[in-house]
Amino acid sequence: MAHYHQGNQKTRRQSWAGAGLAALLLSSGAISTTMVLATPQVAQAYVAYHSLFLSRDRNEPYENFLRRAELIARAGVQRSFDADLLVTEVDLVVVAENQGVSLPAMDIRVTRTQWRNNPDVQYWATYYESAASLLGL
What we know:
Strand content: 25-35%
Shape: elongated
Order of helices and strands: HEHEEHHEH
Mean pLDDT: 78
Low-confidence stretches: 1-16, 27-36
Helix content: 40-55%
Oligomer: single chain
Structural class: alpha+beta
């Protein structure tokens, strides 16, 4: 009977050893799964595209309209970079409106690094010279 008892103890030890191994493997799997789930996704940078529609005030000279547009565009570019850290470039088009006619007056395309080094809209803007005549100004 003692022999049977020793065999039973041996079987229990093997069961405990197997259970310990299974627990170790399961916990290792849980840790690696947790690590996979906790790994952040790769961030993808992108360009933010915006259009600002700006109406010309009655009797406002086109040069004054452009200065006002530049101020608003500067705020728009800065807001785009401030609002989203993944934005690496902003492309902002200022659309001029005058008496029912709308067309692009300027386009600002600038990267975050360029803007940080020189936040001057006039430096980065492309002005559409024909806009004034097409708007009837």
